[in-house]
């Protein structure tokens, strides 16, 4: 149950931060940072942190800014 709560909070934070920035590079960077934080909180090891950063970067780059 504790892991599920961490995952929910991390997912919410990642969703909010993944789209920050006005260029694709900025959104990828903020997504990577948010993903790294989420990966560390969920997995607690280097592999989880790196995987979270990679997933966050892709999610951030895939988002489009509101216009």
TrEMBL record:
It comes from the Bacteria. It holds the Pfam family Gly-zipper_YMGG. PROSITE patterns: PROKAR_LIPOPROTEIN. Keywords: Lipoprotein, Signal. Residues 1-18 form the signal peptide. Residues 25-62 form the YMGG-like Gly-zipper domain. InterPro entries: Gly-zipper_YMGG. The keyword Signal applies. This is Osmotically inducible lipoprotein OsmB. It comes from Brevundimonas viscosa.
């Amino acid at each position: 149950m504790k892991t599920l709560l961490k995952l929910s909070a991390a997912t919410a934070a990642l969703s909010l931060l993944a789209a920050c920035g006005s260029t694709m590079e900025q959104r990828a960077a903020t997504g990577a940072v948010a993903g790294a934080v989420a990966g560390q909180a969920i997995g607690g090891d280097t592999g989880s942190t790196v995987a979270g950063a990679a997933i966050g970067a892709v999610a951030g780059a895939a988002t489009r800014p509101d216009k």
